[in-house]
Amino acid sequence: MRSSSMRIYLLTGVLLAAGFQLKAQAVRCATASRIEAPQTSSGDLTTRNLRHFGLVFHILYRDSSEHLPDARIIGQVQVLNEVFNSPGAISQHIPGEFRKLKSPAPFHFCLASRDPNGNPTTGILRKATGDPGIACRRENGRRSLMSSSLGGEDLWDPTRYINIYVVNRDRCPAPGEAIFPWDANAEEDGIILDLRAVGYSGNTGENSPYLLGLTLVHELGHYFGLLHLSANLRDCTGDDLVDDTPAQGREYFGCPGGLQFSCGSSDMYMNYMSLVDDNCMQLFTIGQVDRMLSVIEDYRPMLASQCLQLEPGGAFDRIGWAYDGAYWLLSGEEGTCWQAQVDLFDSTGKLLWQAPADCYGRLLIPDPHSGIPGGIYYAKIYNDQHLRTLKLINR
């Protein structure tokens, strides 16, 4: 199990568009809270079986600077799995009264390996667009970027895939937007992200305040039926329909720190459904996870894994690697994955980083110090039956 401090070891990707100027007071999320959002009806979900979700990323780009590399997307998926499906350490930044409420969600995310017709895919699609306004424009009541006839890309079957659109949103009011499950239909569903809020970009400040890949975590919360804690009301009457999140009479931005109060109690501003900066987000609650599970049962019951198929044994022998100066990318045979844990060591045998046991088709081994010194490193890839060690070189 990795501690929350291991998040700093995630991908230091290629930084894009230095002009990204989303300030601390900017609105994180353009998704409109629905005060009339329905209560869920599936009852108490005490059995939290792991659910697997296949993702397809539709990248719409205007020029080469917006052509996100695969590594940024792979790193983003790794962020999701670390946040949702790992309890992590309890941060000192979570007030004591909220610590017992922190909960992992039994969700596993992967890039889709088969398209709707059953053909192999990487789960990453790219389309050039010369339209600078497509990110948030509507035509005839439809979002342009979700329609090929309007210059975008059609959804993949939204009952089976989570569609994530990545585009330059510099003309939009916020870096992220999600469609609530009760508003979704066959032509409009999924999540829209600004390309500079995708993946982990470290503490360089260029993508501030969206550095850690948590914009997608927040928007997936909406996609699975969660509201902002204040329900976008400022008079303590807002209800996010979750019992263990306290009433909140305001939204927070930046990273307030310490105790904050409204509505006669402490505010849980460090929640993933708050509007604070990435480095201030810390938890989903037990109640929020139960609501997401219930909403999935009610509104998205057909979502299922479109992940790679496990290739036992011999797949270990076909794992290769590449290095580009910031990370190593391990890749197996196309269309298959290898079930393993991965440990990264330096030449002295010091453990630098670990990836938990999972089924990997491609795995990004992050740079743990924003620039590993030149030298030789070793990746130990293993499970109960197989072991392989790769010698990785950084020149």
Describe what you observe in this structure.
A hairpin with a 4-residue loop joins strand 14 and strand 15. The chain has two domains: 296 residues, Collagenase (Catalytic Domain) (3-Layer(aba) Sandwich), CATH 3.40.390.10; 85 residues, Immunoglobulin-like (Sandwich). 11% of the residues lie in helices and 24% in strands. The longest helix is centred in the first third of the chain and has 15 residues. The protein starts with 50 loop residues before the first strand and ends with a strand. The strands form five sheets. Strands 1, 2, 3, 6, 7 and 8 form a six-stranded mixed beta sheet that branches.
> pLDDT below 50 for ≥5 consecutive residues: which ranges?
1-25, 42-46
What's the number of domains? 2
SSE pattern, N- to C-terminal: EHHEEEEEEEHEEHEEEEEEEE
Calculate Rg over CA atoms. 21 Å
Which CATH-level-2 architecture of the largest domain?
3-Layer(aba) Sandwich
Any idea of the CATH class of the largest domain? Answer: Alpha Beta
Number of strands: 18
**What percent of residues are in strands?**
15-25%
What is the CATH fold-level name of the largest domain? Collagenase (Catalytic Domain)
Distance between the termini: 30 Å
Sheet with the most strands?
6 strands, mixed
